[in-house]
Design goal:
The complex is a heterodimer of chains A (about 475) and B (about 325). Chain A is α+β, with helices and mostly antiparallel strands and about 475 residues long. Chain A is about 30% helix and about 25% strand. In chain A, strands 1-21-20-17-16 form a five-stranded mixed beta sheet. Classes of the chains: A alpha+beta (about 475), B mainly alpha (about 325).
Chain lengths: ~475, ~325
């Protein structure tokens, strides 16, 4: 009997190459080591030249660290992507319907589909925006959906990102660099372009300009500043869209509107794509000590003088406790069956779930409800007895702070490693745009766990990135 | 597209910092050539001290090294020291940091030039010092500055941001020409009798060399090198690319472009024009009557004044 491989290898199992990867089999196998090393250092030099570097919070060391880039692309066939496309859009639509609802009449809670306390007592629930109907009823304009694959036709949503998902600059730059280094691959394979993303984002933002704005809306990206690890992305997007990149100090409120300080004096801003958290948007409304935001901005927002993307309060939809209910949202608001599945999730705050979790810690992945970046989590099968026991104590100390999920058999994709080419685990984050229309560029950010056997793909934990191809129909 | 006031300030400073890095390298060249003159007559101040004086960093140097004014210390201090905000390394790094902030206002070529300068400086800093010659460091700095200015000139859109880059460049250059000339004052201060002797001329020539202008000078004036001719060349000659009047006219030209583009004339344009007018009327005799050092100090103050007005008018973003 042949032993069944544990992980789905996207390139193909047992030596057979799956169709989307067919064009790459010999490309990779025939690549001489020397050529490969040259290309790898060429890629690195290009990233450095563009200035895409990444600072890891609290790590010190080189502030200009690069996220490792793997040259082996991750590929989806057109029919595979069609399903993802529909599934992601469906989810983005439902999440926005949920946000409009819970800051409005709260039908879904009244219908008993989601417990009210999970919504209204949620830290991310923003009482100051209750009753506000943002332009076109959209709260989350850029939705990043984190997906993993476990089989040819099995995809799971790991989490939703409704606030300010980052990484889209990598999607675009990874492609630029691949096209520059391996033009022949793009001639031989029909790969759908992703370069429309900035234009689509700009259109999306313009489409949610407030009613008070007449004529072409002025759009600005609000960044915490050049010390932020994602500053490159903020400036990249501003550049690609041709909009201003502002910090809090560049904006001020006067009367019913928000203005930016220019060399010609104040200029009105209509749409703010903010890349700072809710808590920092307006020190008068949220954290008084915030230096990043704009005093009085929330008043202008409430009175319809400016649109903010994503709208303050959008975070309640991507909370890990709410995540469990997204399939119910899809059924409730859209009357459809979810196209993409959730990962089964146990809430440690529930007695039965807690019991199951503590009895099966060695098999599960346990996460903090509000954690991110791969920090503060336990991967049961990859942990020692001591680590598991230490984590058990943490969970028992504060059950409601933890959720648990089965250890997913994340698919693998061929990756260039020291010894040649080897399978490494990958995930995927596509970026869905919600405005007048719902749009999804064919691609996304593929993150790869470069350490053999590792399932943690976060860049702060040694993960790398790959170009993500969707084959054209 | 509108330009944020803060970003205009970043652009202005990129221009200034690149030019400042170049000035420091040029000052360094003056110092190292002056140091080659046999120091027989005594009574001269240390040549390196005059370089530090002119770069405006003598106080900071003393804090760090005391009175140990040796070439090696000066080299570390002027090239690599990150505690010295005017060192070549500090200028290159903060020019690049300013560029990172206004990445969106720069062409990819300009960004590349600034970013590469930063990467190369990191390499230089890591290199063993015995493997770096002073001349190579000076050459590297001049070449890098020329490359950055070339990309600005050849690739940037002719919009307001371009003007702010250039205004920064020319104000800094005016300031640095004045300071380089002033080095002469510090070198000769104790021994006024040396004026007009062979040694004196040698040192004047060094200043021309440091400004890459000694051949241009011969072409423009010919004959004997005199203090008067050099002052005329570096202060009042419109043909000299680094003369005070050329710098003032360039800054004025870019300010006028801004005024046309924005449709309003401000105090900045008024002051710039008055600076140009004064330099057009004055003669080299007037300058020496006033005293070269006095004239240069006054000019340095006027340039700083203009810079302050520009900041007030354009770089704060208040309604005008």
């Amino acid at each position: 009997m042949v032993e069944k491989p544990i992980y789905f290898n996207e390139m193909g199992m047992d030596g057979a190459v799956r169709p989307p990867y067919a064009g790459l089999d010999s490309w990779a196998a025939d690549m001489p080591d020397e050529f490969r090393n040259t290309k790898q250092s060429e890629a690195e030099a290009l990233f450095r030249r563009i200035g895409i570097t990444f600072a890891v919070y609290g790590e010190g060391g080189d502030p200009d660290r690069l996220i490792p880039f793997d040259m082996f692309p991750r590929i989806f066939a057109a029919n595979e992507w069609r399903k993802l496309d529909r599934g992601v859009k469906q989810r983005a639509k439902a999440l926005n319907a949920f946000l409009m609802d819970v800051y409005g009449r709260g039908e879904i809670v009244k219908a008993g589909k989601i417990p009210g306390r999970l919504v209204y007592q949620n830290e991310a629930y923003e009482k100051s925006v209750v009753g506000i109907k943002p332009p076109r009823g959209v709260y989350s304009h850029i939705v990043g959906i984190d997906l993993v694959r476990t089989g040819p036709d099995e995809f799971f949503v790991l989490e939703d990102n409704c606030r300010t998902p980052s990484g889209v600059s990598y999607m675009l730059e990874n492609r630029e660099i691949m096209m520059r280094m391996f033009p022949q691959l793009f001639r031989e394979n029909r790969i759908a372009p992703v370069e429309n993303y900035p234009a689509q984002l700009k259109r999306t933002l313009a489409s949610v300009a407030p009613e008070k704005c007449d004529g072409e809306p002025t759009i600005a990206i609000l960044t915490p500043g050049h010390f932020n690890s994602a500053y490159y992305e903020h400036s990249f997007l501003a550049d690609m869209m041709g909009v201003a990149l502002v910090e809090g100090q560049d904006l001020f409120v006067k009367g019913d509107f928000c203005y930016m300080r220019t060399t010609e004096g104040p200029k009105k801003v209509d749409v703010i794509y903010r890349r700072i958290d809710d808590a920092f948007i307006d020190p008068l409304c949220f954290r008084p000590e915030s230096m990043l935001g704009v005093p009085g901005l929330m008043n202008v927002y409430r009175s319809g003088g400016v649109a903010i993307a994503s709208a303050p309060g959008a975070g309640v939809a991507d909370d890990k406790a709410i995540y469990t209910f997204v399939p119910d949202m899809i059924r409730f608001y859209l009357g459809e069956e979810p196209i993409l599945n959730n990962v089964p999730t146990w809430q440690c705050s529930k007695g039965d779930d807690m019991k199951y979790v503590t009895e099966n810690l060695a098999e599960l992945v346990v996460k903090e409800v509000h954690g991110s970046g791969g920090y503060g989590m336990l991967v049961g099968p990859r942990s020692t007895k001591e680590q598991i026991e230490a984590f058990r104590a943490k969970i028992e100390n504060d059950p409601s702070n933890y959720i648990a999920q089965p250890t997913l058999a994340l698919s693998t994709c061929p990756t260039f490693v020291e010894e040649g080419i080897a399978p490494r685990h990958v995930d995927l984050r596509p970026y869905c745009l919600v405005g007048e229309n719902i749009e999804l560029v064919p691609g996304g950010l593929t993150r790869v766990a470069l350490t053999e056997g590792s399932l943690v793909v976060n860049s702060s934990q040694g993960g790398g990135v790959k170009d993500t191809w969707v084959m054209a129909e | 597209m509108t330009l944020l006031a803060r970003h205009a300030e970043n652009l202005f400073w990129i221009g200034r910092l690149v030019e400042r890095a170049e000035t420091v390298a040029r000052l360094f060249e003056v110092g190292s050539r002056n140091a080659l003159i046999p120091n027989t007559s005594g009574g001269f101040r240390n040549e390196w001290e005059s370089v530090l004086q002119a770069s405006g960093t003598a106080g900071r140097f003393e804090e760090k090294y005391g009175d140990d004014v040796r070439e090696r210390n000066v080299e570390s201090f002027l090239f690599f020291d990150s505690d010295n905000p005017s060192s070549v390394a500090s200028c290159v790094e903060s020019a690049r940091e300013n560029a990172r902030i206004v990445r969106t206002s720069l062409t990819s070529q300009t960004w590349d030039a600034l970013n590469n300068a930063h990467q190369e400086m990191r390499e230089l800093k890591r290199t063993e010092r015995s493997k770096l010659s002073m001349n190579d460091l000076i050459d590297w700095t001049l070449r890098t500055a020329a490359l950055i200015r070339g990309t600005i000139e050849d690739t940037q859109l002719r919009i307001d941001g371009y003007d702010f880059l250039n205004i920064g460049t020319y104000l800094e250059r005016a300031d640095s020409t004045a300071r380089l000339l002033d080095v002469k004052y510090f070198v000769l201060l104790p021994q006024v009798d040396f004026v007009g002797t062979g040694l004196d001329n040698y040192q004047w020539r060094t200043i021309l060399r440091a400004l890459s202008a000694h051949r241009a000078f011969n072409w423009a004036y010919g004959g004997e090198v005199t203090a008067m001719k050099i002052a005329d060349f570096l202060i009042l000659n419109r043909k000299a690319p680094r003369s005070l009047i050329t710098c003032a006219e360039e800054a004025c030209w870019h300010l006028d472009r801004l005024a046309r583009g924005y449709g309003t004339t401000t105090e900045a344009q008024t002051q710039a024009r008055s600076l140009v007018a004064k330099l057009s009327e004055i003669t080299v005799d007037d300058i020496f009557d006033e005293g070269l050092h006095e004239f240069l100090s006054r000019s340095i103050n006027e340039i700083a004044g203009l810079s302050a007005v520009i900041s007030e008018v354009y770089l704060i973003g208040e309604a005008r």
